[in-house]
Design a protein that fits this description.
The structure is a single chain. This protein is of the alpha+beta class. The chain has two domains: about 50 residues, no CATH class; about 120 residues, Alpha-Beta Plaits, CATH 3.30.70. About 40% of the residues lie in helices and about 20% in strands. The protein has five helices and six strands, in the order αββαβαββαβα. The strands form two sheets. Strands 3, 4, 5 and 6 form a four-stranded mixed sheet that branches. A two-stranded antiparallel sheet has the order 1-2. A hairpin with a 2-residue loop joins β4 and β5. The longest helix is centred in the last third of the chain and has 20 residues. The protein starts with a helix and ends with a helix. Belongs to the asp23 family. InterPro entries: Asp23. This is Asp23/Gls24 family envelope stress response protein.
């Protein structure tokens, strides 16, 4: 069930409960982006918690990290990033300057509370490329939407390479050093 369908089902159930219970029905749940204060000490004259106004800004890097972790959860994804990015990261790791970036191979843009994500992956040999890419797209959209409460309008997946059996990040470091 999609997130939208789940929300619609919950709203329908609440509407049914309102009709059955009349005035005893629970208070309506605030919509997305509206937060209420705790009831203790912060209630208005009528006993209802007042809505807090303000702005919440989520950096693109946060979306990129969540998307990267969601992509790596999928079986068949060996790594993230294109050839150049992976070579640069292995050289950096070899000479000891920093560590691998958590959002390598992921770019995100937030435009009008909608997210567009471009992700580059490496597939493990033996997996069906289209199935893995489809699973990555679905899991990235679901995770970003769930964790950040933002609408994901696009997830563009690029399969850059296939990791062969016995090949690993250490093998790439040797190739980068040549």
């Amino acid at each position: 069930m999609t997130d939208v369908a789940a929300v619609d089902a919950i709203e329908d159930e609440l509407d049914k409960q309102d009709g059955e219970h009349g005035d005893d029905a629970p208070e309506a749940i605030p919509g997305p982006g509206v937060f209420t204060l705790p009831e203790t000490g912060f209630t208005g004259a009528d006993g209802i918690a007042e809505a807090v106004l303000g702005r919440i800004k989520v950096a693109d890097e946060v979306v990129e990290k969540v998307a990267a972790l969601a992509a790596l959860e999928i079986a068949g994804v060996a790594d993230l990033g294109g050839d150049l990015e992976r070579a640069f990261e292995t050289v950096r790791d070899r000479i000891g300057i920093g560590s691998k970036r958590a959002n390598q191979g992921v770019r995100a843009q937030i435009i009008n509370e909608q997210v567009i994500i471009d992700i580059t992956i490496v597939i493990e040999y033996g997996y069906v490329v289209m199935e893995v890419a489809t699973d990555v797209r679905a899991n990235v959209a679901r995770s970003v939407s769930h964790m950040l409460g933002m609408r994901v309008s696009e997830v563009n997946v690029t399969v850059d390479d296939v990791r062969l059996p016995g090949e690993g990040p250490a093998d790439e470091a040797e190739e980068a050093g040549r």
